[in-house]
Design a protein that fits this description.
Blueprint (H helix, E strand, L loop, with lengths): L2 H24 L14 H10 L1 H31 L3 H34 L4 H20 L3 H17 L4 H16 L6 H24 L6
Length: about 220
């Protein structure tokens, strides 16, 4: 298998992790307020006391698995763009690796928050205070804003289009999704812009994955 094939599979893996994240937010985790700015901390602590494995699995999927797949995709697109635009490739590659690092860090913090909160199950008030503090760190790294992700998807979409690596439709999806990610820095737009970024990113990852897995035309 070539790097291009691995990159295509990585892109589809990223899309799958987003789909899993949205599915749980809309179902099992909906009563807790995940995905909104109105999280019920007491309910989260009670949920962790009974089912810590669910949040550990969720965090591992949407953060850790996503970050590792993202690294492979970043390297793949860097190599392809570099053939025509080495400077743009270096820029997008740097942003992509920064995003991957932030996502991985957010996942590790999120899992530690679950583990430590579960250990304090007999003291709900202390558990709630601890989880809320660590959750704020998680959000700061990337769970609550999409600045790095928006910047990478936007930059790599433009560079990919100009270098002939990515098509026009992929670039359009990436531009909308990337701009929405950058807009999450504005508090009034946080939740809505984050939703647009997430849904757009799913479409973008799928489109990039299909493009990379499609056989290249013979010269």
């Amino acid at each position: 298998m070539t790097l291009r094939t691995f990159g295509g599979l990585a892109a589809l893996t990223c899309a799958a992790t987003y789909l899993v994240g949205f599915a749980l937010i809309l179902t099992l985790l909906a009563p807790l307020g995940f995905g909104t700015s109105q999280i019920d901390t007491a309910a989260v602590v009670a949920f962790i006391a009974e089912q810590p494995g669910v949040l550990i699995a969720w965090n591992t999927t949407i953060y850790v698995v996503n970050a590792l797949a993202l690294v492979l995709l970043v390297v793949t697109l860097y190599r392809r763009i570099a053939a025509a635009m080495p400077d743009a490739a270096a820029f997008t590659g740097a942003i992509g690796l920064i995003w991957s690092t932030l996502v991985l860090g957010a996942g590790m913090i999120a899992n530690v928050a679950v583990e430590q909160t579960h250990a304090l199950a007999d003291n709900p008030e202390a558990a709630a205070e601890l989880w809320q503090t660590l959750h704020a760190v998680e959000l700061g790294l990337g769970g609550g804003n999409e600045i790095a992700g928006g910047a990478w998807i936007l930059a790599v979409s433009i560079a990919g289009l100009r270098s002939g690596t990515l098509g026009r439709v992929i670039a359009m999806i990436g531009t909308v999704s990337g701009a929405a990610g950058l807009a999450t820095i504005l508090p009034p737009l946080g939740d809505s812009a984050g939703a647009v970024f997430g849904l757009g990113a799913i479409l973008w990852f799928i489109a990039v994955g299909v493009a990379l897995l499609r056989p290249s035309p013979r010269p």
